[in-house]
Each structure stands twice: as C-alpha cells, then as structure tokens.
Amino acid sequence: MEKRTRQELSKKLQNTGIEEAKRKKDHIIFFICILLAALFWVLIKLSGDYAVNYTLRLRYNNAPKDKTVTTLQDSSLNIGFKANGYNILNLLLTGKLKILDINLSQCQVHHLRDDIYRISSNNIKENVATELGISENSITFSKSDLIFRMETVEKKSITILPKLDLTFKSQHALYAVTTIPKKVYIYGPRNLIDSILKINTTTISLKDLSSNLDVKARLVNPFPHQIRISPKTVVIKLEVEKFTESSLKVPIDVTNTRKPIRTFPSYTTLYFNVFLKDYNKVHVNQFKVVPDTKNINLRKVKKLNLKLIAKPHEISNVRIDPVEVEFLILN
After folding, report:
1. End of a domain among 242, 268, 292?
2. Same domain, yes or no, for 57 and 141?
3. 266 is in which domain, residue-wise?
4. Contact partners, residue 235, CB within 8 Å, separation at least 6
5. How far apart are CA 224 and CA 199, in angstroms?
6. Using omega within 30 degrees of 0 as the cis cutoff, is the peptide bond preceding 265 cis?
7. Is the pLDDT of residue 291 over 60?
8. Res 40: pLDDT
9. Beta strand pairing call for 172-180 and 233-251
C-alpha cells in the first residue's frame, strides 16, 4: 500500500514538472512573438516619411585668398525637411550634420558693407540634401541669407618658442636649442596677428637624454579658424652636452664700497657647473664678487654677505664659499 502511494506521488510530481516546462516554453514563444511584432511595427514606422526640424552649426571654409572669416553673425541655421524614418534615425545616431562645412569658393559671396558679407542659404541646399539622401525641394531654411565678417589677411614674421619637458642622464644637460626655420609667417586680420608675440610648439617630452637630437614639432595655432601659420611644423635641434663641476678662487672687489674697507679673507671660492666643451673658456677675470653694503651701517655689523654680479654665460649653478666675510673700515 505504501509502495503504491509513493509511485502515485512520483507520477504526480513528474506530471507537474512536465506541465511547468510546457508553461515556460509557452511563455518564451509568447515573448518572442511580442518582440517580432514590435520589430515589425518599428520597421513599418521607419519606412514612413516624417517632418523634422534640425539645427546645424555652420563652419565657413576656403575664403578668398586675401581674406579670412573672423566673425559669424549666423553661426547656426534651422532647417526643416521631410525624410523617411531610416534617414532620420541615422541622422540622430551619427550626428553627421551637427556641423555643416560651407565651401565659400563654391558660393556666390556678396559684399554688403565694410567687412560684412553674405551668401544665400540656397548655396548649401545641395550639400544638405546629399548628406540626408533626400530631395532639395523638401528642404526649407529658417534664414534666406547667411551673414559673416571677412577681413583682409595680413602677414607677419614671428619667433618660435619651443615648449620642452626634458630630463637628462647624469652630468648631462641642454647646451643649446635652435629651431629650423627660426621664424614662421602667420596670416590673418591685423588686430589678431598684432596681438601674437610668439608661436609655441606642442610640448616635447623626452627622458634620459645624453646626445644631440632633432625633433619635429607642430606649432600651436592660437586662433585656428581665423589665422594661418606657414609652415605648420618645425624642426627643434636639441644640443646635449656633458658637464662637470669646477671651481675658481676669485678676489673680492671692494673698489666701489661707500667707505674704503678690507675683507678677511680677500678671496672667495666659486663652485659651478660648466660644459666640457666650454671648460677652457672660463677665466677668473670674467667674475666679479662684491660685498653687499646696500642699506647696511658698516659700523654696526661685523660681517658682510658676498654677491656675484658678473659671470660668464657658459656656467650655471654657482655657489660661493665662504658666502660672508669679516671686514675692516680703513678710515
């Protein structure tokens, strides 16, 4: 009896599992049918035509050779058009018409007054229609004319300033930097190019330098849509040399002090770095060390600080030892 009851229970559970699996399968089929229905509905909707309003940002290119576009009175344009859903979806997803390039060499440019010019918005209909894959006749613009300012291009020669981020191997340093060419030309409206005193390069980052190197660098245009730089790239020649520490005993010059004095000691030692190629160019008579007596009552102090007021340009990192000396007033 008990055995038959267990068999009936097992059979019942088995039937329940089969029914549960069948219900899950029915749910999956129903869900797939819903997805297919939604997909077909979307495809049907996308195949239809819709009226759309869209805002374009305008970018003017290829101005006449002696002119440059400086100010945009009309920098955007609202357009209306009809297109099928596929084209509209593609436009929204790619944003390919967020910026519309206007080739002024292919437009009829009309001079209004002073530096103000205009073109008819009809000039860009063909480009917009091509991008959207629609008929020109279906496009309407919010403005019939597009207004902008063009100024006469001026020319100016300008110095290049390399931006360097360099590190060197032990006892090496940058000896000299030169650019080829030394200067470049900038072209643009006078008020802009007069405000530019130099042109920077992009940052040149190099590590562990120990030898000379030539690096091509791009110039940074501070007004990329209004001025032109020629050439756009230059070669930066980095001259790297080895240096050493050297020292010289230099007399302390007291000839120009307010009162005649004598220092103790009468010499000081200068320690400095010098490139090996310049080692023999450095001599004692190129240095001048004096006691600092400015705003000092000589009768109330016992020591004076020393300062270096002349040195050859070939040296760096100068250190004075001793940096202060005792003195005696001679009268």
Report:
1. 242
2. yes
3. 252-329
4. 179, 180, 214, 215, 216, 217
5. 12
6. yes
7. yes
8. 54
9. antiparallel
